[in-house]
Amino acid sequence: MPTVQFTCSDCAQTIEVNDEMRETILATGCPVCTTAASEGDFGDE
Q1: 2 C-beta neighbours (distance < 10 Å), count
Q2: Which pTM value belongs to this model?
Q3: Which of 10, 22, 28, 45 lies in disulfide reach of 35, CB 3.0 to 4.6 Å?
């Protein structure tokens, strides 16, 4: 399953996520600090 890096724009936490986790983060925010996430917070490894 392909993964991408999520980096929170607020707390700077970086985690590797799959598509399902990416969709959840976009819907609910950063899993660490709950700051809203955008497409720009995801990038290639």
Answers
A1: 7
A2: 0.88
A3: 10
Residue pLDDT, tens place only, 1-45: 789 999 999 999 999 999 999 999 999 999 999 999 999 999 976
Distance CA 12, CA 14 (A): 6
CA distance 41 to 14: 10
Burial code (b: 16+ CB inside 10 Å, e: under 16) for 5-42 equals ebebeeeeeeeebeeeebeebeeeebeeeeeebeeebe
> How many structural domains compose the chain?
1
With contact defined as beta carbons under 8 Å apart, do 37 and 25 qualify?
A: yes
Please report the pLDDT score of residue 33 as a whole number.
98
